[in-house]
Amino acid sequence: MSDLSPRVMRLLQPLFTLALTLLGLLLVTFALSALSPVDRVLQIVGDHASQSTYDQVRHQLGLDQPLPVQFWHYLVDLAHGDLGTASATGQPVLQDLLAAFPATLELATLALLVGAVLGVIAGVLCARVAGSPWDLAVRTMTLLGNSVPIFWLGLLMLALFYAKLQWSAGPGRLDDIYQFTVEAKTGFVLIDTWLSGDREAFRNAISHLVLPVLLLGYYSLASITRLTRSACLSEMNKEYILLARAKGAGEMTILLRHVLPNIRGTLLTVIALAYTSMLEGAVLTETVFSWPGIGRYLTTALFAGDTTAIMGGTLLIGASFVLINQLTDVLVRLTDPRVR
């Protein structure tokens, strides 16, 4: 029994941490909404409504109650899947988020695949030939990736590859000819166009995805490459690497068979951070490319002063951030015995 208790505690600790973090996120989100200067009642009744109408709507929304009571009601509504109604669209916020989130998830996931694969390969090669012209060129490229404003580079890509050279499709997820003929069964445009059986629509969806995926992938590649290179170089200075060299192992063999397995925890963490940053930071990319995801939805809500929609979108992105990081911690523990 004494041996079982610590094991149970180790299993319950991540769940407790996750629940506490989500509760803190809910509290911060609610506090920011409560402190917002935007009057939700005026958004509903308008500026010319009578005082009695204003008071009635305020009472219906529960805004005349103390903040702790409002927070409790918010938690109860959230437990029932009620995030409120967006004043900008007139629809439940949850319905809007479920319609917009797949677009962001699809864009960020494809960009992560591009950035992670190319970033790890480039980082390993840079560590292999550290100090060479190739290393200098890649490091310069990654520095630009972290320095150039993403909206400027997106506009430049549209002007060059879409408007000038016409090598790719323009903003949006599909051309107008396919927009209303493809049924949105899953919300993921590649899957929906493939299930529709229209191969031209599928190719059109890929064409629309190329530029935003490459743009976001480039920005994730920049950080993943630098951190992979740094982790490899740090690991290659350890004693077991000197022993492997003394036994006649080649540099690529050392990198692939010894260094990479020992930095997989670092790589998982870096890739997870890149993923969460794309989920929460794709606002400018989605705005430039008219991509109907969470970023564009939040931008529209901000301009409309729709605090309910902003609150729901912020909560979704924050919960995704927490869950992805928690899942990453679990994967690191499972794959790295040193952490266990």
Compressed to H and E, one letter per element, the order equals HHHHHHHHHHHHHHHH
Percentage of residues in DSSP E strands: under 5%
Query: What's the domain count?
Result: 2
Report the principal-axis shape: globular
CATH superfamily of the largest domain: MetI-like
Mean pLDDT: 82
CATH architecture of the largest domain: Orthogonal Bundle
- Low-confidence runs of at least 5 consecutive residues: none
The third-level CATH topology of the largest domain is MetI-like fold
Number of strands: 0
CATH class of the largest domain: Mainly Alpha
Strand count, sense and closure of the main sheet?
none
> Would you tell me the structural class of the helices and strands?
mainly alpha
Query: What is the gyration radius calculated from CA atoms?
Result: 24 Å
